[in-house]
Design brief:
The chain is α+β, with helices and mostly antiparallel strands. 52% of the residues lie in helices and 14% in strands. It is built from eleven helices and ten strands.
Length: 360
Amino acid sequence: MNLNYSDEQNLLRDSVSRFCTSDYDFETRMKSVNSDSGFSKEHWKLFADLGWLAVPFDEELGGLGGDVLDLSILFEEFGKSIVVEPYLANVVLAGGVLKRSGFDKKDEYLSSIVSGEKQFSLANYEPEKGYNLENIETALDDKGLLNGSKSTVLNAPNADYFIVFSKKVDDFCFSLVSKNTEGLTIKSYKTYDGFVSGELTFKDCKPEAVIQEKDALNNLEEVIKDAIVCISAEAIGAMEKCYRLTIEYTQQREQFGSPLSKFQALQHRMVDMFMETEYTKSFLLKVLATEDKDEKTKLIYGLKNQISKSGKLVGEEAVQLHGGMGVTEEMSVGHYLKRLMVIANIFGSSDFYLQKYINS
């Protein structure tokens, strides 16, 4: 296994790290969270100008021809600042479906993602249907009309287009639906971690196009696996920042005339935080270095289970070691815990992926 990053990958990491350090402090993030859109449009334009939105797409589209390893580098740095801009929704999920499809106009839509001109969201999960991707009721009938509902649609309030996973006769398909389509209802809300999401209802909606009919389910499975790797990298970045913030805080805070960091019991807990983070990072590297498709799939299931458990542990320890300050809105550590808790359950719970790991 080659675990060395290329010069281009190190440059990408340095670029994202510099942005997060100099232009994305906690106060800046909270301004984005509390804005109408839930993210900064100026930052999104900057992402496009810097080429970050182009990372996983072909060079013919102005992309960089990168893969999930390149995305993991970017997401790990995002995790250290809990970046709220909708990269996952646009580039990894919606963009991932489009680039794998045989849609004849996909280059046009992918170019609009790369340039940052248009926003996209993937709509695949449904209310009370669990995490199994094929467990859906939304259907495209023989008249080409879409009926049904979708839940937890990331970035739904900002999307210009939705890529909708539905049934069609005895198979599955993806449809492209504009936000202005007659019969589409969007219910928007903020999630626990400050991101934006929504629920969609389709009543005799006429999609602009059917993107893919054959192998749509397989396409979706591959996209979700890439997304799991990305949010796992994001969680690792957040976990690393949690224990660094905790060390810094315990070095400054005194009790009985000594810094909290001098107490052995607290040192042990911080070492546990460090070890959980490093073990999980090693797990991610194992996934990224594995070439066999079946083995890689199984490892991704295991990684999601590991991230769910370790992220929760590290986030909770960080908040507890900060004491009462840790749960205040003004201190960042509580926001890291919220994001880690969401990552633990997005795309499926730890138990769900543990069972998939066992069965694969």
